Amino acid sequence: MCRRFDPDRPEPARLDLKTGRDLTRRRFACLALPLVALPWLPGVVLAAGAEEAPDPLPFEEIAPGVFVHRGAIDLMRASNEGAIANLGFVVGAKGVAVIDSGGSVAEGRRILAAIRAVTDRPILYVLNTHMHPDHVFGNAAFAASGAVFVGHRNLAAALDARRASYLASNRELMGALMDEVVLLAPTLAVEREVSLDLGDRRLIVKAWPTAHTNNDLTLLDEATGTLFCGDLVFLDHCPTLDGSVLGWQKVLDALAALPAARVVPGHGPASAPWPDAIEPTRRYLDALVTDLRKAVAEGVPLSEAAQTAAASEAARWQLFEDYNTRNATAAFAELEWE
Ligand SMILES: [Zn+2]
Fold first, then answer.
1. What is the CATH number of domain 26-276?
2. CA 235 to centroid of ligand 1, rounded, Å
3. How far away, in angstroms, is 281 Cα from ligand 1 center?
4. Helices 279-297, 245-255: inter-axial angle, 10-degree rounding
């Protein structure tokens, strides 16, 4: 199979939002993959058949060439099209990098529309900061763009393991929006660190040990010192634990050393000062660990400990009731075996 994009030989590409066709065509001259592949990519079929160009998702330019959409602090549901995570894109001289694709293909198409309102340059990379649905469900909207999909070395296996449960469990709240969702695995798996060249700026992408999940990835735009850290940092929205609470504490220490000026957290404000923005997440994890260690030491059963752990944090976070018991349950199992 031929390579669909040569970063050293960028060609301006533009996707027709009405037909989903790549207007440049040359980039696919070697193989008509996007069209040939359509039967197994239902999301792309619908994207290509969309009659109307979608409304661009609102984005704020938080630093030169760095655009962020602030997600709603909410659960994913049909009424918000799954648009609950912070997402971004960075525009360079050679093209664009997208950071997370949103919680539905509909949201992904609106990201694409927002990019096209800013630039005609090709979309070179679509990066997923981790496996969670609000960050990856929009991937299929970019399948025809020719972009390289970038993810943690563990992301493909994590998506494979959760594919059935993600598609089934989200249908209850997302309804027909789920028909289009295809969990696309990365085509570039990051072992430790890679540098992505956008022409006049470099993006440093790092794969982290297990923390929020076992596939957390961060992206640092060197030109502006903007760090996209996915759900390694939460603000306002209660943190959610799907990896290792002890690992996450360690990763926050290492993360704090990154030379950033500002951070785009996975949820919360579009931009926050670095590294101060780490503190609320750290405080929450510390409270969870301290309370659960005490419960384990005192022989308090899980059912009781999960109700009381990190209670001091309850008033500080939105959606605390939705996530804290689940976090405490996961952390208890880890701390019980320390
Ligand atoms: Zn997450």
1. 3.60.15.10
2. 13
3. 13
4. 150
- CA dihedral of 99, 105, 106, 111, whole degrees rounded to 10: 20
Strand pairing of 66-69 and 87-91?
A: antiparallel
Q: What sign does the dihedral 98-203-72-309 (CA atoms) show?
A: positive
pLDDT tens-digit series, residues 225-278: 999 999 999 999 999 999 999 999 999 999 999 999 999 999 999 999 999 999
Structural domain boundaries of the chain? Answer: 26-276
Distance CA 62, CA 221 (A): 12
Q: What's the gap in Å between 54 CA and the centre of ligand 1?
A: 26
Residues 129-173: tens digit of each pLDDT: 999 999 999 999 999 999 999 999 999 999 999 999 999 999 999
Going from the C-alpha of 19 to that of each of 15, 45, 96, 281, the distances in angstroms are 8, 10, 21, 43
Q: 111 C-alpha vs ligand 1 centroid, how far in Å?
A: 19
For 162, other C-beta atoms within 10 Å of its C-beta total 16
Name the pTM for this structure: 0.84
Rounded to whole angstroms, the Cα distance separating 10 from 336 reads 53
* Cα 51 to Cα 49: distance, rounded to the nearest angstrom: 6
- The Cα 5–Cα 13 span in angstroms is 11
Residues, beta carbon < 5 Å, ion ligand 1: 132, 231
Measured in Å, residue 170 CA sits from the centre of ligand 1 at 14
| Dist. CA 24 → ligand 1 center (Å) | 35
